[in-house]
Amino acid sequence: MADWDDLKVFLAVARGDSLSRAGRVLKMDAATVGRRVTRLEAALGARLFSRSPQGYGLTDEGARLVHHAEAIEAEMERAREALSGPGEGISGQIRIGAPDGCANYLLPQVVAGIVAENPALEVQIVALPRVFSLTRREADMVIAVSRPEQGRVIATRIADYHLSLAASTAYLADAPPLDTLDDLRTHRVIGYIPDMIFDRELDYLADLGVEQAPVTSNSVSVQLNLIRQGAGVGVVHDFALPATQGITRVLTRTFRLTRAFHLVRHADDRKVPRIERFSQALVAGMRAEIARLEAQVHQQATA
Q: Which Pfam family is one of this chain's hits (predicted)?
């Protein structure tokens, strides 16, 4: 019969694909992790992992056990929440994966408000321009631009947000006229590195009618700083503009994009009170912050 401690080790190895990565998560050495896996396999009478130089891959039996182990994990989390009581606030560790634009210009102020009200809460923001794996538990939840079409996940639409063309005032002072989208042919355009776009919703150049940007980065923050330094014209999140001096929107009457953020979680976390309460606070905070920052941009434009 397997105990919960061994199942925790099993899940860590399944999510990390290696003993060493699991050990770092569990704060134990790899040899101990390996012994615990072997003990669990003996107790269950089944081979849970296939070992190879590339790491530990789940066997069919291991893949079936993952679902049961995650269900137990969720039950243990609910039990912990029930014992702590509703008046204790949100506690424990929560990791959020997010595109770097959202992670840099929205999440800091939203998360700051949540942790101020929940002192026992630890939040990790992983800002990477790529897709996160909830199955491997790289994060407890992910903020995505495209709604997922497959997988055992639940997705909540957070809010629409807008993007505009922008350039630094110094660049515009010396650059050719920019009165129409056709004028972009005489300007340097800043954009994403084409083969590093991880979501089709981020392919802004197609909306501009531009085939290739001469100055590119896979990071929204780098793109914004390139614009600030006068490297050219680029597409920026409206909610990022209040945090950046010396940048102004251009062609606002002819170009504006609308996209949406979604909060994506593992389906098994729906009944975990800690995750549910944090998700509700995060969604409410992001909706309010997007509305506040975009209203500020609009007021500045009409002043």
A: HTH_1
Q: Are 41 and 52 in contact (CB under 8 A)?
A: no
pLDDT (0 to 100) of residue 132? 57
- pLDDT by residue (tens digit) across 198-240? 777 778 887 887 878 899 998 999 999 999 999 999 999 999 9
Q: Which fold has domain 4-84?
A: Arc Repressor Mutant, subunit A (1.10.10)
Pair 97, 66: CB distance under 8 Å: no
How does strand 92-98 pair with strand 121-127?
parallel
Please state, rounded to an integer, the average pLDDT across all residues of the chain: 86
Superfamily of domain 160-250: Periplasmic binding protein-like II (3.40.190.10)
Give the three-class secondary structure for 212.
coil
CATH fold match for the domains 89-157+260-302 and 160-250: yes
Q: Kindly list the distances between the CA atom of residue 87 and the CA atoms of 37, 78, 118, 260, in Å, as whole numbers in the listed order.
A: 38, 15, 11, 33
> Which amino acid, one-letter code, is at 225?
N
Q: What is the dihedral of CA 279, 282, 284, 287, to 10 degrees?
A: -130
Query: Model-level pTM greater than 0.90?
Result: no
Eight-class DSSP state of 204: T
What are the DSSP calls for 216-258, one per residue? Answer: E-S-HHHHHHHHHTTS-EEEEEGGGGGG-TTEEEE-TTT--EE
State the fold for domain 89-157+260-302.
Answer: D-Maltodextrin-Binding Protein; domain 2 (3.40.190)
Which of 191, 189, 177, 176 lies closest to 232, judged by CA? 189
